[in-house]
Known about the structure:
It is a single chain. With 162 residues, the protein is mainly beta. The chain has one domain (14-149): CATH 2.40.50.180. 6% of the residues lie in helices and 45% in strands. The chain has a six-stranded mixed sheet, with no helix packed on it. The longest helix is centred in the last third of the chain and has 5 residues, at 145-149. The model is unreliable at 1-10 (pLDDT under 50).
Amino acid sequence: MAEALTIGAKEIAGHEFLAFTLGKEEYGIDILKVQEIRGYEAVTRIANAPEFIKGVINLRGIIIPVVDMRIKFNLGTPVYDQFTVVIILNIGGRIVGMVVDSVSDVTTLTPEQVKPAPEMGTAFSTEYMIGLGTIDERMLILVDIDKLMASPEMGLIESLAA
């Protein structure tokens, strides 16, 4: 039995991650946080909301905020095409949509495939990274999506249920 790798109190051995792209980089989030994946559709803008909050959508009677991660992390001007998707997340009982360039696959990472995140000057704060996952020639930036969505600058989730 493989020993579980723990990075920042997150046990990630054998966890499955949904891989998605933002710009030229590939990211991964815990698949258990993903409720569904939808094609990008028009959103209803909310007055005075931060620019990265695209607006809200009605998801089967539930109004959910939609965040464009490309705008949030200054990754250039977003282009909405047939590959653009909204990942519907369930974070601490709160439903949130996250716009990304595309999704590629779901992958299982072993402890040997996950390395701690180095400190670096990127648009994406290492504070929200679990580590780096390596799959052959690919590298996934593993995101602590709970911590990111609950961060004060996102202002989307007041507090996470323990």
